[in-house]
C-alpha cells in the first residue's frame, strides 16, 4: 500500500508542476473542437436554413446527413490540423516531463530520490498522456453531443469514438519518438535536431534513392514497396499527416505497435542513461558513429544528385558536390559531438570512408553495376507475366470508379453528368496485377528487345511495361522504350493471347446475366439504345461479341477500322442513363425513345467489319451496325491542315482550307476516311495531319457531328486532299 500511495503522491506532485501544460491542452481543444463545432453548427443553420425554411423532409434529412459527414471528416485522423496539434502537444508534454535530463543539477536531484527509475519514468509518461488526451476526449464527446442533438445521426458517435482512439494512438507514437530523442541527447537543441532526424531521415532517404533509380536506371517502372511504401512511413510525422495515404486502420495499428515498442526502448534507455551525460550532445557514445555515417553518406549522395542535375548531368560536378558536402557535414557533426570548434577535423579517416562509400553507392546506380536494366528472368522462374502498352490497347474509358448524375454536375460530354474515371496509374497497377499471359516466350523476346534498346534511340519508340510474378513470390517490373517496327511480331503474339485479352477487355469476363441493355454508336442517325429483354437473344449477342473480340488478331486490328461501337450496360450504368433522362427533363418519357449520348465516351467497345456474327445478330435486333452516310446527303467536305503552336492548340487558317463538292471527290475522301463517329477511336490508325469536316445538305452551316473533325486512315490520304 505504501508503494502505491507513494506512486500516486508523486504522480500528483508532478502534475502540479506541469499544470501549465494542462492549461495549454485544455485551451487548445476547447477552441479547436468545441468552439469549432459550434461555429460549424451556426454556419450550417445560416447557410441551409433547414430549421426555418425547408419543408421537404427528404431535403432536411439529406442536409443533416451531409453536415454529420462533415463533422466526421473533421474529427477523423485524416485532418491535418489535428496532426499539427498533437505533434506540438507531444513535443510540449515530453519536454515538460523530461527536460530535467538536460540539467546536471536537476538530474542529480531527481535520481537521488528514493524512487526506482522505472517508477519515475512511468510517472512522467502517464502524466504527459493524461495532460494531452483527457481534455481531447472530454471536448470531443461534448462536440459529438452537440452534433448529435442537431442532426440525430448515429454515425457521429462512431466517428468520434474512432477519432478519439486514432488521435490518442497518433499522439502516443509522436510522444514516444520525442522521448527517444530526449533519451539519446544531452541538451535541448540537439534533442530537437534528433526529433527532426527521426521524423525526416528515412522519408528523405527514400526520396533520394527513388530519384537515383529514376535518373540512372533506364528501365525503372516503380521503385518497389520498400522504397515507396515502407521507408517513407518510418516516421511519426509522415504517419500522422497520412502523407503516403495509409488507411485509418493501418495508421492506428502502426501507431499502437510502434508506440509500444518505442516506449519499451525508451524505458531501457532511461534505466541505462548515465546522469553525467546531462549537458552533453549525445547520451550514448555507441550511436555516434552510425548516426554520423548515415548523415554524411546521405548528404553526399543528395548533393551529388543535385549538382549532377543542375550542371547538365556532369559527373565531375556531381563528385565535387558529394565531396564538399561530405566534408562540411562531417565537420559540423564533429563540432556538435565534441562541442568544440577545435575538433572540426577530428576523425578524418571516418570522413574519407563516408565519402568513398557514398561515391561507391552513386557508381552502383549510375553504372548499373547490379545489372538492373539487363535483368530478364528465366521462363522456369516465372509464375505469371503481364504486359501493358498503348500500342496493344488504349481503352482507359472502360475503367471508371463511379458516375454521378444531377443538375449540379457537368463534364465535356454533356450536362448533368460527371464521370469519375480511374487514373492511369491505378489502371496500370490493376492490369499488371491481374493479367496472366500464356505465351511467356513472346513476352521474354519482347523484354530482350527492351534490354537491347536501352542504349539506343528510336524515333518511333513506344513505351512497354512488363511485370513478372516470380515463383519465389517476388514481383519484378520494367519499362522499356522499343522501336515500333522491331516489336510488331512479339506484340502480335501477345495481343492474340487469350489471357491478355481477358485482362484488358472487362466484357470478356462479364456475366451475361449482368447485362440489361446495349447502346450502339455508329453514324448519327443510327445511334440507339436497346433493352435486352429476350434472354436468348441477349446471350447470343454477348457470346458472339466475346467470340469476335477474342478472335480479333493484332494484324486485323492494325489494318481495319471500327464501323461502330457498342456499350454493354449493367444495372449500374442503366440506372445512370435513366437518371439522366429523368433529370434532363427534355420531353422524353422513356430511355428507349432517346439515345443518351451524354455518356458517349464511357465504356464502349469497337465493332469491326470482321465481327460478322455480332453484326448479324444486331441486324436481327433491327440495328444496321455497318450503315454509312450516303454521298447524296453530303453538301461539301472541307479539309484543312492541323497547325500546332505553343501548347498544341489548333490554328485554323481559312486560306488553307480545300473544299470538295463533286460527288466523285466526296466518294474518294469518304473511302479513305476513318469515318465512324463513334467514341472508340484508334489514333494509331489515323493520320492526324489533316482535319476533315463534313457538311450535310440539311445543315450546311454546321459540320456533321458538331465540332468533331474526322481524319484519314493512316497512310491513305487521297491525292486530291494533299
- Overall 3D form: globular
What class do helices, strands and sheet pairing give? alpha+beta
Q: What is the residue-mean pLDDT, rounded to a whole number?
A: 87
Q: Strands of the biggest beta sheet: in what spatial order? A: 13-10-15-16-14
Please state the CA-atom Rg, rounded to the nearest Å: 34 Å
Number of domains: 5
Biggest beta sheet attributes: 5 strands, antiparallel
- Count the DSSP helices: 23
How many DSSP-defined strands? 16
The proportion of residues forming helix, as a percent range, comes to 40-55%
Low-confidence stretches: 50-55, 645-652
What distance separates the N and C termini? 102 Å
What fraction of residues sit in β-strands?
5-15%
List the helices and strands and how they pair.
Layout: H1 2-17, H2 19-48, H3 57-75, H4 80-98, H5 104-111, H6 117-151, H7 155-184, H8 188-216, H9 224-230, H10 236-240, H11 248-272, H12 288-310, H13 315-338, H14 348-366, E1 382-388, E2 400-411, E3 414-421, H15 424-434, H16 440-452, E4 461-470, E5 475-483, H17 484-495, H18 498-504, E6 515-521, E7 528-531, H19 535-551, H20 554-559, E8 564-570, H21 571-584, E9 605-607, H22 612-620, E10 634-641, E11 643-645, E12 649-651, E13 658-660, H23 663-672, E14 673-674, E15 686-696, E16 710-713
Helix pairs in contact: 1-6, 2-3, 2-4, 2-6, 3-6, 3-7, 4-6, 4-7, 6-7, 7-8, 7-11, 8-12, 12-13, 12-14, 13-14, 16-17, 19-22
Describe this structure in words.
The chain contains 23 helices and 16 strands. Strands 13-10-15-16-14 form a five-stranded antiparallel sheet. Strands 7-6-8-9 form a four-stranded antiparallel sheet. With 722 residues, it is α+β, with helices and mostly antiparallel strands. The protein is globular and about 105 Å long. It folds into five domains: 2-283, no CATH class; 289-373; 379-504, no CATH class; 516-620, no CATH class; 631-721, no CATH class. 54% of the residues lie in helices and 14% in strands. Helix 3 (57-75) packs antiparallel against helix 6 (117-151).
Amino acid at each position: 500500500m505504501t508503494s502505491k500511495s507513494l506512486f500516486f503522491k508523486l504522480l500528483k506532485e508532478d502534475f502540479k508542476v506541469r499544470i501549465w501544460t494542462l492549461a495549454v491542452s485544455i485551451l487548445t481543444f476547447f477552441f479547436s473542437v468545441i468552439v469549432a463545432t459550434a461555429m460549424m453548427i451556426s454556419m450550417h443553420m445560416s447557410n441551409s436554413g433547414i430549421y426555418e425554411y425547408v419543408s421537404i423532409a427528404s431535403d432536411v434529412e439529406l442536409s443533416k446527413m451531409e453536415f454529420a459527414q462533415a463533422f466526421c471528416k473533421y474529427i477523423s485522423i485524416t485532418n491535418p490540423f489535428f496532426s499539427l496539434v498533437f505533434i506540438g502537444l507531444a513535443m510540449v508534454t515530453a519536454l515538460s516531463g523530461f527536460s530535467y535530463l538536460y540539467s546536471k543539477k536537476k538530474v542529480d536531484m531527481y535520481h537521488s530520490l528514493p524512487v526506482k527509475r522505472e517508477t519515475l519514468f512511468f510517472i512522467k509518461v502517464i502524466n504527459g498522456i493524461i495532460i494531452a488526451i483527457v481534455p481531447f476526449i472530454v471536448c470531443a464527446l461534448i462536440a459529438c453531443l452537440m452534433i448529435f442533438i442537431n442532426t440525430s445521426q448515429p454515425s457521429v458517435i462512431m466517428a468520434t469514438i474512432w477519432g478519439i482512439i486514432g488521435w490518442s494512438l497518433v499522439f502516443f507514437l509522436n510522444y514516444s519518438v520525442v522521448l527517444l530523442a530526449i533519451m539519446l541527447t544531452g541538451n535541448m537543441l540537439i534533442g530537437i535536431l534528433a526529433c527532426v532526424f527521426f521524423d525526416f531521415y528515412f522519408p528523405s532517404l527514400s526520396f533520394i534513392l527513388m530519384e537515383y533509380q529514376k535518373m540512372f536506371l533506364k528501365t525503372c517502372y516503380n521503385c518497389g514497396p520498400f522504397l515507396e511504401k515502407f521507408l517513407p512511413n518510418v516516421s511519426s510525422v509522415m504517419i500522422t499527416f497520412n502523407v503516403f495515404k495509409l488507411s485509418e486502420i493501418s495508421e492506428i495499428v502502426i501507431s499502437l505497435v510502434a508506440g509500444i515498442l518505442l516506449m519499451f526502448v525508451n524505458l531501457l534507455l532511461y534505466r541505462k542513461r548515465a546522469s553525467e551525460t546531462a549537458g552533453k550532445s549525445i547520451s550514448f557514445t555507441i550511436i555516434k558513429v552510425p548516426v554520423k555515417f548515415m548523415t554524411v553518406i546521405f548528404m553526399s549522395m543528395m548533393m551529388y544528385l543535385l549538382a549532377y542535375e543542375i550542371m547538365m548531368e556532369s559527373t565531375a560536378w556531381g563528385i565535387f558536390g558529394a565531396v564538399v558536402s561530405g566534408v562540411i557535414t562531417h565537420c559540423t557533426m564533429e563540432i556538435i559531438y565534441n562541442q568544440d570548434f577545435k575538433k572540426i577535423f577530428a576523425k578524418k579517416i571516418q570522413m574519407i570512408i563516408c565519402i568513398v562509400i557514398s561515391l561507391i553507392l552513386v557508381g552502383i546506380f549510375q553504372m548499373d553495376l547490379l545489372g538492373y536494366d539487363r535483368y530478364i528472368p528465366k521462363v522456369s522462374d516465372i509464375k505469371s507475366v503481364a504486359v501493358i502498352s498503348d500500342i496493344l490497347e488504349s481503352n482507359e474509358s472502360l475503367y471508371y470508379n463511379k458516375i454521378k448524375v444531377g443538375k449540379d454536375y457537368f463534364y465535356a460530354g454533356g450536362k448533368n453528368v460527371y464521370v469519375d474515371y480511374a487514373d492511369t496509374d491505378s489502371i496500370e497497377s490493376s492490369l499488371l496485377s491481374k493479367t496472366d499471359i500464356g505465351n511467356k516466350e513472346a513476352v521474354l523476346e519482347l523484354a530482350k528487345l527492351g534490354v537491347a534498346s536501352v542504349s539506343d534511340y528510336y524515333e518511333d519508340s513506344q513505351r512497354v511495361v512488363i511485370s513478372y510474378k516470380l515463383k519465389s513470390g517476388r514481383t519484378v517490373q520494367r519499362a522499356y522504350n522499343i522501336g515500333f517496327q522491331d516489336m510488331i511480331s512479339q506484340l502480335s503474339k501477345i495481343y492474340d493471347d487469350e489471357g491478355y485479352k481477358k485482362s484488358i477487355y472487362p466484357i470478356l469476363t462479364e456475366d451475361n446475366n449482368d447485362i440489361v441493355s446495349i447502346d450502339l454508336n455508329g453514324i448519327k442517325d443510327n445511334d440507339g439504345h436497346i433493352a435486352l429483354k429476350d434472354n436468348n437473344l441477349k446471350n447470343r449477342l454477348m457470346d458472339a461479341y466475346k467470340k469476335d473480340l477474342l478472335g480479333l488478331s493484332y494484324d486485323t486490328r492494325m489494318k481495319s477500322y471500327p464501323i461502330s461501337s457498342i456499350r454493354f450496360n449493367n444495372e449500374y450504368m442503366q440506372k445512370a442513363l435513366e437518371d439522366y433522362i429523368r433529370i434532363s427533363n427534355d420531353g422524353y418519357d422513356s430511355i428507349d425513345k432517346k439515345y443518351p449520348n451524354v455518356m458517349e465516351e464511357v465504356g464502349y467497345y469497337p465493332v469491326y467489319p470482321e465481327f460478322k456474327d455480332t453484326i448479324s445478330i444486331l441486324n436481327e435486333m433491327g440495328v444496321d451496325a455497318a450503315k454509312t452516310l450516303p454521298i447524296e446527303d453530303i453538301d461539301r467536305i472541307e479539309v484543312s491542315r492541323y497547325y500546332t503552336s505553343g501548347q498544341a492548340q489548333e490554328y485554323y487558317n481559312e486560306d488553307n482550307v480545300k473544299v470538295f463538292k463533286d460527288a466523285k471527290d466526296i466518294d474518294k475522301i469518304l473511302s479513305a476516311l476513318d469515318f465512324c463517329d463513334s467514341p472508340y477511336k484508334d489514333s494509331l490508325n489515323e493520320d492526324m495531319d489533316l482535319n476533315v469536316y463534313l457538311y450535310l445538305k440539311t445543315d450546311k452551316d454546321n459540320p456533321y457531328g458538331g465540332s468533331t473533325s474526322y481524319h484519314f486512315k493512316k497512310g491513305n490520304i487521297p491525292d486530291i486532299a494533299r
